[in-house]
Amino acid sequence: MGPRPTLGHMPDTYSLLSDPEPIQECEAYLMPRLDLSGETIKPQVSTQEELGRENAKLKGQLLRLTKLITQRA
């Protein structure tokens, strides 16, 4: 079998399993356009949008709690 090559094509270097972002982008944007069944697939909500909504919700809770604490002091 010999020593492991240091130059040339090394398929272990890049793996789709180690970086899920390309898979998610493919499923959200490419697969609906390639679908032959004619069904429309709703694009997935990006994690950035989800995190933005959650962040806004937590900020609102933080403001309410801060108000309660300052009123009682």
**Main sheet specs:** none
Task: Based on Cα principal axes, name the global outline.
Answer: flat
Number of DSSP E strands:
0
Average per-residue pLDDT, rounded, comes to 78
What is the end-to-end distance? 74 Å
Give unreliable regions as ranges.
Answer: none
Distinct helical segment count:
2
Strand content: under 5%
Radius of gyration equals 23 Å
Structural class: mainly alpha
Helix content: 40-55%
- The topology string of helices and strands comes to HH
Can you describe what's shown?
This protein has 73 residues and is mainly alpha-helical. The protein has a domain at 47-73. It contains two helices and no strands. The protein has helices spanning 21-34, 47-72. The longest helix has 26 residues, at 47-72. The chain is flat, with a radius of gyration of 23 Å. 0% of the residues are buried. The model has no long low-confidence stretch (mean pLDDT 78).
